[in-house]
Amino acid sequence: MKAVSRARSRYELNLDYSNESIRHVETMLTYLHEILKSDPRVVDANSMAFVLGAYLGETIRKNKAGATWE
To answer: N or C end of the chain, less CB within 10 A?
Structure first.
């Protein structure tokens, strides 16, 4: 998944679909927010929102019995 590869290559963070890895997503979002405040043209916020949202959904699905996407 793109979130896993982007986290590793751009932020040196390991996303492993564990509940604990959600803290890494928060770290990435904090960093992206700071970049967007300084220069909104640098980051494609929509793209990252979809990528990280999909990762969060998959993490919840994998860790919560019976969870499904709709």
So the answer is: C
Name the nearest CA neighbour of 3 among 61, 20, 38, 16: 16
**CA 50 to CA 34: how far, in whole Å?**
18
- Taking a C-beta distance cutoff of 8 angstroms, is the pair 51, 3 a contact? yes
Both tokens of residue 32?
């992206």
What sign does the dihedral 47-14-24-43 (CA atoms) show?
negative
Tokens linked to 60: 């919840």
Mean pLDDT of the 24-43 span: 85
Q: Once rounded to an integer, what is the mean pLDDT over residues 35-44?
A: 79
Q: Is the pLDDT of residue 45 over 90?
A: no
Structural contact between residues 13 and 27, judged by C-beta atoms closer than 8 angstroms: yes
pTM: 0.81
